[in-house]
Amino acid sequence: MFNSLKGLVVTLVSTMNGLRAPVTRQYPDTGNRLTGRVSEPTPVKDRFMGFPALTWDDEIGEPFCTSCMVCIRDCPTQCMSATMKDNPLHAQGKSRRRKIVDEFEINLGRCILCGICVDVCNFDAIEMSHEHELSKFQRNDNRVDLAQLLKMGKEYREKTGWTPKHPEKNSGIPIKKDDKPRPFRKRAPKKTTTPANTPVAVEVEIPTEDAGEKAKTPS
Ligand code: SF4
Ligand code: SF4
């Protein structure tokens, strides 16, 4: 009798659980049939790594990217390319960046989302965005240019409130002449170790008739 009642309770609890909101959401819908469907895509977590995107320096009004090529050299799939140009804002004294990115392209069809480009960039210029819905019918249709990469970066910043990791180093605001110079750190002299039995050439003067003659002998 007790076991039968226990079985009924288990069935009832299981049935009630089945009526609750599902744990697994059907992509791209959110919500469920009881509460009504929502057409918003399922949100991704903050730590989600989508396609790489370029960041924008609002203080100056230009990209952070100087097209230094470090990320392009280190990309394991060689899916990136870029060109640089002289920065006109630097010539006008409005930006600290002498060079600025001119063109930038990533073939997202070849990108493996490894994040190496972000790790090696010294200028806070590239980030793994939340963008992931870029399916195309052709293998090479997923080439994105500078404008698209910057747009992805702006959307990522609006969603996450991204700020540069090293603003003091990577700010584009020009340094004024009367600004305090950065403290200079002296490097410690390199330690040189000479093996105990290594012969060292020394110059000695041999007292001969010709006092001006010199000879080299190992010590
Ligand atoms: S994203 Fe960074 S590492 Fe890549 S070219 Fe631009 S500044 Fe250099
Ligand atoms: S995430 Fe990896 S594969 Fe994709 S562009 Fe960056 S370095 Fe290349």
| Mean pLDDT value | 83
Uncertain residue segments: 211-219
CATH architecture of the domain at 52-168: 2-Layer Sandwich
Which fold name fills CATH's third level, the topology of the domain at 52-168?
Alpha-Beta Plaits
Work out the helicity level.
10-25%
Strand tally is 11
Q: Which sequence of strands runs across the widest sheet?
A: 6-7-9
**Ligand inventory:** iron/sulfur cluster
Main β-sheet description = 3 strands, antiparallel
CATH class of the domain at 52-168: Alpha Beta
| Individual helix count | 6
- Radius of gyration over all CA atoms, rounded: 32 Å
Overall body shape: elongated
Q: Name the structural class.
A: alpha+beta
Question: Per DSSP, what share of the residues sits in E-state strands of 2 or more residues?
Answer: 15-25%
In N-to-C order, the SSE pattern is HEEEEEHEHEHEEHHEE
Q: Give the CA-CA distance, first to last residue.
A: 105 Å
